[in-house]
């Protein structure tokens, strides 16, 4: 990381959403990994939930969290594959349309590049993606433990650290809703 130690760390409020038809609070290991890494990085875990793979449920949850002034960013895990039940990217598209949000295309590209180092060509099956909507960042990672580690450790830990140089997502937050 290109951390400038002369700058102060600004913790943000992050919600974790697990998207799964089978995970529960007892076996949500990818959500646990994210929650642990968020708090270990000095950020605040603002909310945590598990939703089934239904786009309407995801849209409602995400819009509710976007409207919550105590949530700055959302990291989801699961629902980014290729099967018919994997609807997280479609839910993000609906949120983006409903809020006038914007895609962050480089997130998915960088995630697959990092993931390639871990799982090779299997990364092509991931539809990891990100948007900014209503001033809130939303990052959608695959549901495996390895994927959330790759996404957090390889991208989000740095980009959600206000000291990261030459730039980071946190410093943009005050300007995300400019017109």
UniProtKB/TrEMBL annotation:
Pathway: Cofactor biosynthesis; molybdopterin biosynthesis
Gene3D superfamilies registered for this protein in UniProt: MoaB/Mog-like domain
A Pfam family: MoCF_biosynth
SUPFAM superfamilies: Molybdenum cofactor biosynthesis proteins
UniProtKB keywords: Molybdenum cofactor biosynthesis
Cytoplasm in keyword set: no
Name recorded for this polypeptide: Molybdenum cofactor biosynthesis protein B
Native species: Altererythrobacter litoralis
Upper lineage: Bacteria, Pseudomonadati, Pseudomonadota, Alphaproteobacteria, Sphingomonadales
